Amino acid sequence: MSTLRLEIVTPEHKVYEKDVNMVVVKGISGELGILPDHIPLVTPLKVAPVKVKIGNTHESIAVHGGFMEVRKDKVVILADAAELGADIDVSRARLAKERAERRLAQRQAEISAIRAELALQRAIARLETVEKQE
Ligand code: ATP
């Protein structure tokens, strides 16, 4: 089975680098499955798990926004933050989710609501990444 190189990089470090068979991301206009030899493209990403297929195994990485660049045999994701399923602190993500939901329910000023909504999306992406990993 042919492969492509996937790199996921944040301003802090390289989170992921492997040869994989398929990458599935949530771009701003929908879900995209990338196979080797895909046409080149650049797209902004939503806050969501990135799913990877390697042989018969699947891996998930929480990717918090950023961009994906697809080249012939390489996909580079530049994200604000990203975590491997194994590195996600589930209780921290649950607490962050509850905190964000509480703030949204309190109907604060619009700017706080936007921040809470973004925090909620990050927490949900982390929890979904861990669920997909199990
Ligand atoms: P929190 O409110 O718990 O800090 P957050 O969504 O505001 O969550 P971020 O600003 O997205 O956190 O991330 C700050 C740093 O902490 C990043 O390096 C990110 O990878 C890491 N991080 C945040 N939440 C978790 C988590 N649940 N498990 C592992 N790492 C996390």
TrEMBL record:
Domain ATP synthase F1 complex delta/epsilon subunit N-terminal per the UniProt entry, residue ranges: 4-82
Limits of the ATP synthase epsilon subunit C-terminal domain: 87-130
Coiled coil (UniProt feature): 90-133
Predominant location category: membrane
Record keywords, A-Z: ATP synthesis, Cell membrane, CF(1), Coiled coil, Hydrogen ion transport, Ion transport, Membrane, Transport
Top-level taxon: Bacteria
Membrane topology of this protein: Peripheral membrane protein
SUPFAM superfamilies reported for this sequence: Epsilon subunit of F1F0-ATP synthase C-terminal domain, Epsilon subunit of F1F0-ATP synthase N-terminal domain
Places the protein is found: Cell membrane
Alphabetical list of HAMAP family matching this protein: ATP_synth_epsil_bac
Task of the protein: Produces ATP from ADP in the presence of a proton gradient across the membrane.
Similarity comment: family membership: Belongs to the ATPase epsilon chain family.
Quaternary structure note: F-type ATPases have 2 components, CF(1) - the catalytic core - and CF(0) - the membrane proton channel. CF(1) has five subunits: alpha(3), beta(3), gamma(1), delta(1), epsilon(1). CF(0) has three main subunits: a, b and c.
NCBIfam families to which the protein is assigned, alphabetical: ATP_synt_epsi, PRK00571.1-3, PRK13446.1
Name of the molecule in the record: ATP synthase epsilon chain
Gene symbol of the encoding locus: atpC
